[in-house]
Amino acid sequence: MRTLASRVSTLSPSTTLAITAKAKEMKESGIDIIGLGAGEPDYNTPDNILQAAYQSMLEGKTKYTPSGGLPALKDAVIEKFKKDQNLTYGRKEIMIGIGAKHVLFTLFQVILDPGDEVIIPTPYWVSYPEQVKLAGGVPVHIEATATSQFKVTAEQIANAVTSKTKAVIINSPGNPTGMIYSKEELQTIADVCLDKDIWIISDEIYEKLIYAGQKHVSIAQLSDDAKQRTLVINGVSKSHSMTGWRIGYIAGDQEVVNAMTDLASHSTSNPTTTSQYAAIEAYNGTQDTVEVMRSDFETRLDRIYPQLSKIPGFNVIKPQGAFYLLPDVSEAMAKTGFDNVDDFAEALLLKANVAVIPGSGFGSDNTIRLSYATSIDLLEEAVRRIHAFVKENW
Ligand code: PLP
């Protein structure tokens, strides 16, 4: 028999990548499309990082490395945690992987047995539920809406826990919401997870993109107990504009990290060697470029948010981090004759020539996601086009 395995029968391709591909196709055929679908910073990787990568290749550092990553990169990550959060980890508590995405994939493989549940707040990053299912697990969604600032409460988590629950995912700053959990909110969540004895998977990939003078708080830094229960996921993709280099990592429980490293030794061997040297420089070199990019994102947000809010039927909460806006467009859809957000997003692409991501892919049926990882001029033009489209069809 040459049939596919049942584990991929319900697998849906990433909606983010799908709409971006369609927009690219239209653009290549000569149509003036503005793409607001991107999930990556629009800056080149900083020069010092490029140089370090090139230098490492010239020095012949182009061979296999240990499966869990170069000790020097682990040390750079350890130093980062110490400096940023005053968290202390040892090398055995860190695994470097091929981007945060694959680190998460590997994590679910080692903590989930068939039927184990993972609590995922909605709207969620597209890959969480698919990765949980691929590991035989069951995603359990709890809903956060615009009225709850797109954040779930500790009580919602407590109510969703069953004897099968293995973990909850907290993504702060969040994709697609841009929301940040306060220290107090994280504390109540940590208390519930400790009480219920479940893992806290804390995806902190947008850690460095925080606005309005706020500071990132990791749930792991709240107490020793919280740290032991938390598996922190992070990487250099968003902070250092290194999406294509594919370097992410986990910090946390030694047994989990050890199992993940063993699994990597049979699946990936190691993250790309050159990328690891680049990531060492990303953390050990100047951080000035990180701040330049962050403040540029903030300027864009401050400029574009008021304009987006003026579109009739768009209800937008101002995000506090990451580089996405997630307007609730239910009223605009109702007034312009759309009964689902996929059709609405498609119309924006075909008629207004602006590519946005429909919230359905994030488990959020009334929203669209706009990425502001593009120039202010293009952002303003895109919002003008969307505004005109809504007005014409109202
Ligand atoms: N987690 C979230 C919330 C993301 O948005 C992304 C990328 O879009 C990732 C993880 C994966 O990042 P990486 O490029 O390190 O795989």
From TrEMBL:
Name of the protein in its database record: Aminotransferase
Q: What class of enzyme is it?
A: transferase
Instruction: Mention one GO molecular function.
Output: transaminase activity
From which residue to which does the signal peptide run? none
Q: Which residues form the Aminotransferase class I/classII large domain?
A: 32-386
Does the UniProt entry include the keyword Transferase? yes
The family note in this entry says: Belongs to the class-I pyridoxal-phosphate-dependent aminotransferase family.
**Which keywords describe this protein according to UniProt?**
Aminotransferase, Pyridoxal phosphate, Transferase
EC numbers: 2.6.1.-
Q: Sorted alphabetically, which CDD domains does this protein's record hold?
A: AAT_like
> Per UniProt, what is one Pfam family of this protein?
Aminotran_1_2
Q: State the PROSITE patterns in the record.
A: AA_TRANSFER_CLASS_1 (PS00105)
User: Which InterPro entries does this one have?
Assistant: Aminotransferase_I/II_large (IPR004839), AspAT/PAT-like (IPR050596), NHTrfase_class1_PyrdxlP-BS (IPR004838), PyrdxlP-dep_Trfase (IPR015424), PyrdxlP-dep_Trfase_major (IPR015421), PyrdxlP-dep_Trfase_small (IPR015422)
Q: Name the coenzymes or cofactors required.
A: pyridoxal 5'-phosphate
Q: What PANTHER family would the database entry show?
A: ASPARTATE AMINOTRANSFERASE (PTHR46383:SF1)
- Which species does the entry assign this protein to? Sporosarcina siberiensis
